[in-house]
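Service request form, structural biology core

Requester: graduate student, group of Dr. S.
Request type: structure prediction, single chain
Budget code: on file
Notes: please return the result as C-alpha cells.

Sequence provided:
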Amino acid sequence: MKKVFNPVFLFFMLSLSLHAAAQAPMSVTTGINGPQLTFVNNDMSYDFGGIPKGESVPYVFEIKNAGNVPLIISGMKCESGNVQCKWPAKPLKPGKKGYITVTYNAHGDEGSFKTQIFISSNATDSAYAFLHITGAIIPASSPYQPSNSGSKSKGGGRRGR
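Core staff response, request fulfilled:
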C-alpha cells in the first residue's frame, strides 16, 4: 500500500504544537538552586592606567547574587602583594547587589602590571571566580597620566580618588 502525504494531518500537528508553545510560560528559569555570583555589566576586569609611584588607587566592582539562597564570599587572594581587597562581610541575599573594592598600592618598581584576583565563595555555578586588573606604575613626578579609555570596564564599577 502506498503512503500518501496528508496536508490536513500536517496542518493539525503544526497547529497543536503552536498552541502548546503559546501556553508555555514566557520566562526562562535558570534552574540554579543555590547562590550565583555575577558581575554587573560583566565587569570582571579593569585597567588602572598610569598610577604614580607611591599612590594607592581603589576600584569598585559591582556584584549581584543571581541565585536563590544567600551568597557568601569567604575570601579573596591575589597573585600580587600590592593588592588589597574588601568584600561584603555579610551574606548577600538573593537578588541583592554588593561591592568588591580592589585597591592597587603602587609601591613597587615602575612598569606595567597584570594580575588576577581569586574569589572564593559558596556559589553553585562556580565556587571560584577571577578578577583581572592591569595598569602601570609611573614616576611620581611624571606629568603623563594616561586616561582609562582603554579600560575593559563597561561602567559597572567606580574608580576612587
